C-alpha cells in the first residue's frame, strides 16, 4: 500500500513543490496551511509521515505545538521538522519532543527524499521489532503435509492479497492466530502493524476503551483500531465481544470511522480478521451475536481442521516441537519411538496443536533419562491419558509376562500388537503398511485374518472412518 504523507506549511509554493517531489517517488500526499487544517487531515488520513514547518503564519498553533499533539495521538508516526529561520535551540527542542529530524530551508531535494525514505524504513523496523517481541516463541506457519492443511494454505494464499475480511474457525489451539498472521504476512499490508484484540480476556467495561481508545482529562489514549491503521486487526474469539460493542464495530466497519470514548471521530484504514472456536450460527440463534456483524466479518470463511482430523501430520509436528524446544532450552534432541508415535496419533488432542507442543516440551524436559539423547521417548513414558487408547504394544513395559506364554502364543501376541501399531502408524493404509513390514498385501491380509485383527482395529485412527478391505488395499 502507498504511504501517505502530510505536509504542513503556510507557503503554498513549498507545499506544491514537496507534493510534486514526493508523488514522483510514489507517495500519496496531503497538504495543510495551518494547525486546524493539519489536525483535521492528520485525524482523517492517519499519515505514515508528517513534514511540519515550525513557523506557521495565521495559525492557532505553531509547529512545536502540533508536534506535541501528533506525538500524543500517534507516537509511532515519524515527523520531519522544517524551518527557514531555525536555530540550534529550535532544532534541539523539536528533537527532544519526538521529531525524527530537522531540515533547514532551502532544502536539497535529494536529501529530503532520502530522509523521508529512511524515516519510513525506521518506523517499519520498529513495528517489526515490536511484533517480533510480541510473537516470540509463536509458530508463524501452519505445518503439515496432509491434504487438509495443504488446502488451508492454498486458501490463505488466495485470500491474503485481497483486502477481504476473513472469519477463521476452529478448535482452541488449532492454529487460528497463526493462520491470521500468515494472511497478514502475505498481504499488501504486510509492512503495516498486526494488532491482536483477545475478546475472551477483556472485561466488558474496558472493551470499548481498548478497541476505540479514549480521551480523558486532556490525555489521549489510542485504541487498537487506531494502532492497526494501514495494517491488520485480529479480533480473537470474537464471540466473546459484548453485544453493545458489536453494534459499534458494525458501524466502524461500515463507515471506516469511529469515536474514541469521550472524544472526536477518528478515521482508520484497517483490515479485520476474526477468529472463533464457537458455532456463530448457534450464537446468533441464541441472540448472543449480531447477525449483521457476522456477515460483515465472514466475507471469506476459513476453517482450520483439528489435529484429530489429520493424524498423518502428528509425527512431523511432534518432532518439530521437540527440535525447537531443544534449541530454546539448550537440551539435546530426542527421537520418538514408533510406539510413542502410534500413541500420539491415536489420542484425541482436545487442545490441538498447542497441546501437542506443550506435551513435547514437557517430555523433552521431564521424561526419564532426559539427559540421555540416545534414549528415545517411548510410549510408556507418555501420560496415561495419551497412551491408554493405543494398541496394547504401545502400553507394554518391562513387567509384561510374555515369558510365561508358549512360543506360538507369544509370537502371535507380538505379531498382533506389532501389526496394530504399524497399521495405526500408516492410518490404516494396507499398501503402505505392507510395504514397510516387507510383506505382500495379500499376505498381510491373510496374516491379519489369522491373528483376528478386525477392520475396526486396523483403521482405529481419529478422524478416519473404517474402510473396507478393498478400499484400504487400493489406497497408495
Structure description:
- Helix 13 crosses helix 15 and helix 14 packs across helix 17.
- The chain has helices spanning 12-24, 35-45, 63-73, 88-96, 109-134, 147-159, 176-185, 207-212, 224-227, 243-255, 280-285, 291-297, 314-329, 338-346, 352-366, 384-387, 407-425, 430-436, 441-451, 455-458, 469-474; strands at residues 4-8, 28-32, 49-53, 79-83, 101-104, 166-169, 194-198, 213-216, 219-222, 231-236, 257-259, 265-267, 270-276, 300-303.
- By secondary structure, it is α/β, with parallel strands linked by helices.
- Mean pLDDT is 85; it is low at 393-400 and 458-476.
- The strands form 4 sheets. The chain has a 5-stranded parallel sheet with strand order 2-1-3-4-5, sandwiched between helices.
Helix and strand layout, with pairings?
Elements: E1 4-8, H1 12-24, E2 28-32, H2 35-45, E3 49-53, H3 63-73, E4 79-83, H4 88-96, E5 101-104, H5 109-134, H6 147-159, E6 166-169, H7 176-185, E7 194-198, H8 207-212, E8 213-216, E9 219-222, H9 224-227, E10 231-236, H10 243-255, E11 257-259, E12 265-267, E13 270-276, H11 280-285, H12 291-297, E14 300-303, H13 314-329, H14 338-346, H15 352-366, H16 384-387, H17 407-425, H18 430-436, H19 441-451, H20 455-458, H21 469-474
Parallel strand pairs: 1-2, 1-3, 3-4, 4-5, 6-13, 6-14, 7-10, 10-13
Antiparallel strand pairs: 8-9, 11-12
Helix pairs in contact: 13-15, 14-17
Amino acid at each position: 500500500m502507498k504511504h501517505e504523507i502530510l505536509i504542513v506549511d503556510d507557503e503554498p509554493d513549498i507545499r506544491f513543490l514537496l507534493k510534486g517531489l514526493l508523488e514522483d517517488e510514489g507517495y500519496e500526499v496531503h497538504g495543510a496551511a495551518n494547525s486546524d487544517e493539519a489536525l483535521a487531515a492528520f485525524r482523517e488520513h492517519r499519515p505514515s509521515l508528517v513534514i511540519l514547518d515550525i513557523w506557521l503564519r495565521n495559525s492557532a498553533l505553531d509547529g512545536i505545538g502540533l508536534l506535541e499533539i501528533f506525538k500524543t495521538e500517534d507516537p509511532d508516526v515519524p515527523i520531519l521538522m522544517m524551518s527557514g529561520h531555525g536555530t540550534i535551540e529550535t532544532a534541539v527542542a523539536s528533537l527532544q519532543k519526538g521529531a525524527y529530524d530537522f531540515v533547514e530551508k532551502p532544502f536539497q531535494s535529494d536529501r529530503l527524499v532520502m530522509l523521508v525514505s529512511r524515516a519510513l524504513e525506521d518506523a517499519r523496523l520498529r513495528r517489526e521489532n515490536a511484533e517480533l517481541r510480541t510473537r516470540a516463541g509463536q509458530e508463524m506457519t501452519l505445518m503439515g503435509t496432509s491434504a487438509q492443511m495443504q488446502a488451508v494454505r492454498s486458501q490463505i494464499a488466495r485470500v491474503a492479497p485481497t483486502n477481504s475480511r476473513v472469519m477463521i474457525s476452529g478448535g482452541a489451539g488449532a492454529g487460528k492466530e497463526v493462520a491470521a498472521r500468515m494472511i497478514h504476512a502475505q498481504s499488501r499490508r504486510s509492512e503495516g502493524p498486526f494488532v491482536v484484540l483477545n475478546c475472551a480476556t477483556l472485561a466488558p467495561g474496558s472493551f470499548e476503551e481498548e478497541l476505540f481508545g479514549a480521551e480523558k482529562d486532556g490525555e489521549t489514549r489510542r485504541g487498537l483500531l487506531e494502532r492497526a491503521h494501514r495494517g491488520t486487526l485480529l479480533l480473537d474469539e470474537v464471540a466473546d465481544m459484548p453485544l453493545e460493542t458489536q453494534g459499534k464495530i458494525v458501524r466502524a466497519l461500515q463507515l471506516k470511522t469511529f469515536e474514541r470514548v469521550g472524544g472526536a471521530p477518528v478515521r482508520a484504514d484497517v483490515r479485520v480478521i476474526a477468529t472463533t472456536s464457537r458455532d456463530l450460527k448457534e450464537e446468533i440463534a441464541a441472540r448472543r451475536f449480531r447477525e449483521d456483524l457476522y456477515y460483515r466479518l465472514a466475507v471469506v470463511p476459513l476453517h482450520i481442521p483439528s489435529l484429530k482430523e489429520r493424524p498423518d501430520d502428528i509425527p512431523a509436528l511432534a518432532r518439530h516441537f521437540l527440535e525447537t524446544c531443544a534449541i530454546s532450552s539448550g537440551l539435546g534432541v530426542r527421537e520418538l519411538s514408533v510406539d510413542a508415535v502410534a500413541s500420539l496419533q491415536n489420542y484425541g488432542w482436545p487442545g490441538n496443536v498447542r497441546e501437542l507442543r506443550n506435551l513435547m516440551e514437557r517430555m523433552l524436559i521431564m521424561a526419564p533419562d532426559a539427559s540421555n539423547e540416545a534414549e528415545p521417548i517411548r510410549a510408556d513414558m507418555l501420560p496415561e491419558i495419551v497412551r491408554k487408547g493405543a494398541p496394547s504394544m504401545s502400553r507394554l513395559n518391562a513387567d509384561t509376562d510374555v515369558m510365561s506364554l508358549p512360543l506360538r502364543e507369544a509370537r502371535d501376541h507380538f505379531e498382533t500388537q506389532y501389526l496394530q501399531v504399524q497399521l495405526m502408524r500408516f492410518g490404516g493404509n494396507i499398501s503402505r503398511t505392507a510395504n514397510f513390514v516387507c510383506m505382500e498385501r495379500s499376505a498381510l491380509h491373510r496374516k491379519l485374518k489369522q491373528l483376528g485383527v478386525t477392520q475396526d482395529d486396523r483403521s482405529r485412527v481419529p478422524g478416519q472412518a473404517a474402510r473396507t478391505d478393498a478400499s484400504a488395499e487400493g489406497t497408495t
